[in-house]
Amino acid sequence: MSDFSLTILFASVLATAAPLIIAALGETITEKVGVINLSLDGSMLLAAMVGFMVSYESGSLVLGFGAAALVGAVIAIVVGLFGIYLGLLQVAVGFALTLMCKDLAYFLGNPYSRLQGPQMLSIKIPVLSDIPFLGPVLFQQPLIVYVALILIGAIWWYLFQTERGLELRAVGENPEAAYTRGIDPRRKQLLYTAIGGALIGLAGAAYSLGIKPGWGRPQGIEGLGWIALAIVIFGGWHPIKVALGAFLFAFLQVIGITLQGIWPSVPAQVFQVAPFPLMIFALVMVNLLQREGVQGWVKAHPMLQRFIKQLQGVPPRALGKSYHPD
After folding, report:
1. What is the dihedral of CA 183, 77, 79, 196, to 10 degrees?
2. Rounded CA separation 82/95 (Å)
3. Residue 126 carries which DSSP code?
4. pLDDT tens string 239-250
5. Three-state secondary-structure class, residue 173
6. Which domains does the chain carry?
7. pLDDT tens string 221-269
C-alpha cells in the first residue's frame, strides 16, 4: 500500500471515529454516574435530523449542532426523570425512547429528505498540515475531529484528576456513601445524564452535517448507538480505552470500504454489515477470556494476559439502580 493510500486510510479512520467517540464518551459519563441510557440509537438519529433541519433552515452549522445537543440532552433528561426520580427500570425507559425517537426522526424529517444543506468542511491548520503523513491525517480534518480528540483528554482529566470527577464516580459506585458526605446523588445523576445526552446529540449532528451529510431514509447511522454502548463496555468505562474501541470500529468500517473496491464480486452489503458482528465478536471474546474457566489458559500466555488485563474494566456498582434518600 502506498504512502498516499495509507494517509487516506488513517485520515478516514480518524474522521469516521470522531462522532462515535463523542457518543461513547457521553454514555461513559452517564454510566459512570450510575445511569444507563439505552436511548442512544434513537437519540442520535433524532439529533441528526434536527441538526440538519435547523442548519438547513438557518444556514448555520452552529445552530444545527446546538439544537442537536439540546435534543440529546432533553431525551437523556427524560430517561433520568423516569429512572432516577420515579424509580422506573432505566433499561426499559431507554429502549422505549430509542424506538420512539427513531420513528419520530423519520416522520418529522421526511420533508428534508435528500435536500442539500450546510456541511462541515476540513480545516487546514497552517504549518502543521504540511508535516509529511501526520499533516494530512491530523491537521486537515473537520472541526468535529478536533473536538473529539480534545474531549478524550478533557473527560479523562475531569473524571480522574478533579474533585468533581471524584464525586461523579462516588455517586456511581455508592450513592448512599456519597449522600452521607453531603452530595445529592440524584441531582448529580440528572446533571451528568443531561451532559452525556448532549454529547450524544452532538454525535448525531456530526453525522448528518459532516460524516454522512444530508438527511434521508435510511440515514446510514442506524445501529451505531448500540455499537457506542458496546464500546463503552469494551473500553471498561475508561475514556481512553473507549476511544480506542471507537477507532477499532472505524478502522473496520474503512477497511470494509477498501476491500469492497478490491473484491467487487462480493456484495457491497457484506462489507457494510461486517464491522458490526466483528466488533461484537471482539467484545464477546474479551469477556470470555476474563472468565474463570479460561483463566488458566490465559495465564499460560503472558502477552495475552497483559492484553486482557489492559482491557479489563469493572462497571460502576450502582449502575442502573435507582437511589432513594429515605
Report:
1. -80
2. 13
3. T
4. 999 999 899 888
5. helix
6. 3-311 (1.10.3470)
7. 888 898 899 899 888 899 999 999 899 888 888 887 776 666 666 665 6
Angle made by CA atoms 173, 179, 180, in degrees to the nearest 5: 110
Indicate the angle between helix axes 239-262 and 3-32, nearest 10 degrees.
140
DSSP 61-85: HHHHHHHHHHHHHHHHHHHHIIIII
Asked if 316 and 31 touch (Cβ cutoff 8 Å), the reply is yes
Q: Can you tell me the distance from the alpha carbon of 195 to that of 154, in angstroms, rounded to the nearest whole number?
A: 14
Banded model confidence at residue 124, pLDDT cuts 50, 70, 90: confident
The Cα–Cα gap between 209 and 111 comes to 17
Could you tell me the three cell numbers for 284? 464477546
3-state secondary structure of 140: strand
Mean pLDDT score, 80-101 = 92
DSSP designation for 20: H
Cα radius of gyration rounded to whole Å, the chain: 20
Across-strand partners of 141?
Answer: 123
Q: Coil, helix or strand for 300?
A: coil
* CA-CA-CA-CA torsion sign (56, 57, 59, 60): negative
pTM of the model: 0.89
Q: Using CA atoms, how far apart are residues 85 and 189, in angstroms rounded to an integer?
A: 10
The Cα–Cα gap between 87 and 322 comes to: 6
297: amino acid identity, one letter:
W
